[in-house]
């Protein structure tokens, strides 16, 4: 089985929920932000906006080398969505990226990434992925 973005970013198996939760609670390394940015093929400013982190705050996190709990949680949230989209599209990461970045009418014209800025939005995107996987539109 291939490594997921979630496991690459966190350093633990994405299936090990307790270890993943512990990583989030202790705060991910700032490198996790950079790994997510590279995987999503977006610039620092775009990812900061998706994660709801101000630029000045992001600079402080970079200097400190660590993200706070809520920031770590958001990074993992987006990594998990990338993993789910990749699975949906049979491991095609480029197709997953295209899908995540494309505005969708069902999400009020937002891309899945934009829609997932909140916990509720994330659940809606996950629900949509599940419906697509099971052929329920």
UniProtKB/TrEMBL annotation:
Residue ranges annotated for the Antitoxin Xre-like helix-turn-helix domain, each copy included: 20-79
Residue ranges occupied by any Antitoxin Xre/MbcA/ParS-like toxin-binding domain in the UniProt entry: 86-135
Protein's organism: Pleionea litopenaei
GO molecular function: DNA binding
Pfam families from the UniProt entry: Xre-like-HTH, Xre_MbcA_ParS_C
InterPro entries found in the cross-reference section: Antitox_Xre, Xre-like_HTH, Xre/MbcA/ParS-like_toxin-bd
Domain of life: Bacteria
Protein name listed in UniProt: DUF2384 domain-containing protein
């Amino acid at each position: 089985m291939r490594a997921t973005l979630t496991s690459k970013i966190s350093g633990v198996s994405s299936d090990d929920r307790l270890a993943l939760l512990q990583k989030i609670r202790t705060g991910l390394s700032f490198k996790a932000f950079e790994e997510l940015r590279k995987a999503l093929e977006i610039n620092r400013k775009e990812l900061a906006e998706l994660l709801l982190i101000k630029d000045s705050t992001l600079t402080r996190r970079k200097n400190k080398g660590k993200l706070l709990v809520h920031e770590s949680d958001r990074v993992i949230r987006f990594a998990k969505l990338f993993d789910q989209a990749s699975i949906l599209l049979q491991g095609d990461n480029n197709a997953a990226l295209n899908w995540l970045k494309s505005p969708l009418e069902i999400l009020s014209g937002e891309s899945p990434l934009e829609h997932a800025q909140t916990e509720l939005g994330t659940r809606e995107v996950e629900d949509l992925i599940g419906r697509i996987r099971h052929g329920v539109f």
